[in-house]
Amino acid sequence: MMKILKAKTSHPKKQIFQISDLTYIKSMTPLKELINGEEMIDPIQVNRHEIFDKVRYGANGVPYKEKTFSVYKGSQRIQAALQLGYTHIEGIISNE
User: Fold this and answer.
1) Which residue in 47, 57, 77, 95 is deepest, having the highest Cβ count within 10 Å?
2) Is residue 46 part of a domain?
3) How many domains does the chain have?
4) What is the extent of the structural domain holding 89?
5) What is the pTM of this model?
6) Over the stretch 14-27, which tens digit does the pLDDT of each residue have?
7) Does residue 59 lie in a domain region?
8) pLDDT of 76-91, one tens digit each?
9) Using a CB cutoff of 8 Å and minimum separation of 24, what contacts does 78-81 make?
10) Cα–Cα dist 4/9, whole Å
């Protein structure tokens, strides 16, 4: 079942992102205000990336798993959304 964390602020280019499709900073602490029951004010901001045809490698020769979207602003909101059981979140694409 899809559970969406919606932003209070309206934005003409706002869209819904599946959290599992996003790259974000996993070490961030969840945003306390959201955990305490407050609304998310602004949508997260993500950057769209080009996925390369060739396999790229990271540390120790491990294949790098590329994702189309990375979170530019909002990793704490993502952490809070996950802790609260959300599967999707509203955001905007910053680099379009």
Assistant:
1) 77
2) yes
3) 1
4) 4-51+65-93
5) 0.86
6) 999 999 999 999 99
7) no
8) 999 999 999 999 999 9
9) 78/19, 78/22, 78/24, 78/28, 78/44, 79/24, 79/26, 79/28, 79/29, 79/30, 79/31, 80/30, 80/31, 80/32, 80/34, 80/35, 81/5, 81/19, 81/34, 81/40
10) 15
Q: Which residue has the higher pLDDT, 87 or 52?
A: 87
CATH number of the domain bearing residue 9? 3.90.1530.10
Tokens of 17: 């992102």
